[in-house]
Every structure is written in structure tokens, then in C-alpha cells.
Amino acid sequence: MAAASCSPPLVSTGKLTTPEYRNWLALGHALTTVLCQGLRPFVNRETQTFYKNVTAAVAALPAAGPCTCVFVAGRRPNQYHDMRVCAWANILQARHHKNKPNWKQSDSTKWVDPNLGPWEIAKLFLPDLGGHAVIKSADDMDVTGILNLMFWCDHFTIPQPLISDVRETRNKKWVHVAKLELTSADKTTAFGTIENLLQDPQLAGDPDAQRALKEVVNIKSVTDLHSMEAQVLADFREVMNTLAQKAERQEEEVIQLKEHQVTLEKAVEVLEQRNKPSSLLYTAWKSLAFVLGSLGRSVKSFRKEVLLLWMMLLLFWSWCDVSNDDTVIKDGTLNDLVNFNADI
After folding, report:
1. Position 83 pLDDT exceeds 70
2. Does residue 204 sit in the same domain as residue 281?
3. What is the largest CA-CA distance in the chain?
4. Contact assessment for residue 178 and residue 17, using Cβ atoms and an 8 Å cutoff
């Protein structure tokens, strides 16, 4: 799925001090980092169990072996698998809540591989990833992928309404919004959907999920934007790492990447004109512009991660207005930003 063609709205200096913007920022961190990390261990374990169940079901059928299906354009109802003879395809289709696995992005030759198979099969329950995305564990999946896998695969028995509420929160309260704002009432509702999911009995005994729940409750009460600096920086670095990895394997929409590069370069020019700019922060901005420029020359695909990346960039840019001293540069966090290349 291609990312939207327009850039997210600019964040003014004054806007950083509004409760609505802080609410929106807090929700983004709770969804993309805290919830995602809290669910990954659970999803890793359950996906492995699901794979064992599938392979056992295939092995129990007479004369069942590896899937040898090839793509046949005119074959109905499935161009990718011969449903008359393919035991794997029939079993996997039945495990999808709508009987509509995403066949085109899963390499069936890897299904029998005990290491690659579980995650190649997991792709059947995910939306289009673009290109040939490599997923070797839940650590390679963002919160959207994790929620989709839990929602569409019938192995996960957490009530679907709990999952769909969080998906709707992500889409309607954080990503697809005209303004980067969230009212206090909407914040309470949005965080409530995350808490309800993490409080489900199946996650109540999971230590990672419960740590995430405590952190979500804590984030909900954050009122000081600067107190979220370390958290936002962690989000930013994760997005950059993901961006670098995906840049190596995806090919489409290079134009949008270049548009974001131009926008970033303009931001750097503004920063350059400010009085006494922080040399470290300025270096970081220039480094990021170079990274995007390099990706623009080598990548032909750029998906929704750009949106989150740009939001984080806007945050750091705006901080230059909020503080002309060194309050942003504390605890070594800015050095982490400048040296993020070492982790990519």
C-alpha cells in the first residue's frame, strides 16, 4: 500500500505547548513503541505454536508433502495455489477469518522450513507489505502488522473487537488526521482501547504485555513534553533503522521520498539561519538530510514509515524554538541521535 502523497502538516513552535499536540504525541509513542514491543514476545511464541499446529495438520493428511504450486493466471478461484490438491493452501485458508489469505506475498517454498516457515506463513495474514519483505520474527513487524496478524489469524483468540478498537484508534486518532491534535476526551478513549487489549486474560499473565500496560498508563499522564524526549528519540531511532532496512529491498515511489528530502533540506536552511544554533543538533539535521538523499538515489519504494519519520523530525526542529539553551542536550540523548548511523 502506497503512502499518502501529501506531507504531514507543519508543527508551529506554539503548537508544541498545546495539550492537544502533547496528547497526539503521547498516543503515537504508546502505539508504535510501547504496545508494539509489549506484544512482540507474545506474538513470537504464538506464531511458533500456530506453525506447529499447521505442520501437524498437513502431516496428518494422506500423501501430503511440500507445496509445489505455481502461479497460473487463469486458475480459479486461486491463481497461486491449486486448491484441489494443495493441502497447505486449504489448511491455511481455513485459518484466515475471511478465508482470504494474502497469497501473493508469501513464498510457499519456504513453508516447510522450520525457521522461515512460521513467518512466511504469517505474511498471509498481513496487508500488502510491498516488494519481498523479509520477516523473521515479530521484531520485524510494526504495530500494524502485529495487530493484523492477531486479528485475521484464528489461532489468536483474543476477542476481535479489542484488536479492532486499537486498529481504529491508530488509524483515526493518530495516522489519518487533519491536524496533529488529540483532545483530552479522545485521549482517554484512545488509551482506553490500548489498556483494554493489554488487560485481556490471555495477556494478563504475559510479563512483557503487563510491563507495556504499566508504561501506557504512565504515558497517559505525561504533561511535560520535554519529559518525553528520551522516549521520542527511541521511537525516532527505531524508525530510522527500519527505514534503512526496508530501503534495501523495496522498489517504488521514489518521488515521494525526494519530496520529503526537499522538505527536510528546507528545514535545515531555516535552522541554519537561527541565532546561535546548537552545533550538535545542526549536525544531526544535516546527517539526516544526507541519509534521505542517499536513500532517494537508491530506493524506489517508501511506505508509511515516512509519516512517522517526518513527525519525529518536526518535533526536534520545533524544540529548537522552544529552547535556545542546552535543555534539549541532556543525558547524552542527542549524542545518540548524532551517532545513530552506527546502529544502521
Report:
1. yes
2. no
3. 76
4. no
